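Look over this record before class:
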Amino acid sequence: MNIFVNSQKPILGVLLMVALAYSCAPEADYKTTRKAPSASDLVMNNSSASVQKTLDLFDKRLEEYQDGIYLKNWIYDPVTNNITYGKNEDQKAREEAINHKLGLGFKDYIAKENKKTLKYQAVSPFANMEDVGMYGQPLLLNGVPFSGVLVGTHIQSDKRILEARFYKGNRLGTFNVWTNLGRLYTKSFKEKNQIAIDPDAVRKPVIYLYPETAQDINVKVHFEGDLTHTYPKYNASTGWNVTASPNGMLTDHKSGKAFSYLFWEGQSSFQYTLNEGFVVEGENVADFLDDKLALMGLNRREATDFVSYWLPELEKNAFNLIHFATEEYTQNAALEITPAPETLIRVFMVYKPLENSIDIPAQQLQKISRKGYTVVEWGGKQASQYLN
């Protein structure tokens, strides 16, 4: 099967230019476990306009990918590095694969972390963060080298757990994996193959809506960066349109599905000011967060969601510098909500792992009381460097 029979001519033209760029690209300048740099390494080291155009093209394909459309009965052969599927697959999913958007459904998470140690374990060759296995040789789709974007979805939760780009079967650019804890791991050739949680990621902002009576609500996020993941799917022009109930349950107008909150994540280079905050021992983080979140107006459901998400990451550190950057966060990610709520609570935590305790002015937090129609949002990020 030739997956490129329906490809558009502009794509072929651009990919041809990239092929020419490979022949004159320099050797990779970083250490690698492979014997020689792959085509994808060479692309990342070439600054020609044609290469950048190709990367932009694949990024566009990733943006165009429709969540929920993926192959379910595919088979992977690790010996030949070949993914096969038949005519019994969903017609739309097969068409998308032909158009360079390959969606794969996974029954289990491809990478898992221990909740206490956060040790990363690849339980599938698709999650191996090293250049071995399926990422060490060209990836084939029905016997043909695959070019395009590969998106993996955890079937039960309907969450995205894998993003990768390929040209002629070789991995191109960044490679993203989300674990069972919802944490993002990225491997990038630009960063000499370092594996780490992305320090520029604004993570897990979730928005709860509590009108006094059931009503339609529109929510827009004006983020000074790039939105990378949203659920339900966010429309850049119209935002989210939902019907909200007083108990917080939401019905998305586009999909008709019910949601407990609105979720988004994004990438931003915005630097938060950490000139005050709290130094908290890892073993005391849960009690600390319970106390401060209650002070800032979160109820037990919201606080439980917050703590259960961040606790595995914070309690493993000897100490944590924790700062609640609500004002700066509001500048970096303004919310436009129609109709406007009577009470708006936004909690955004920025933290740095510390090896030892430090002296820093304590942050003064104001007690917030909820009144009438209320909207609550919480999120956070890890600062990129240790303080000491």
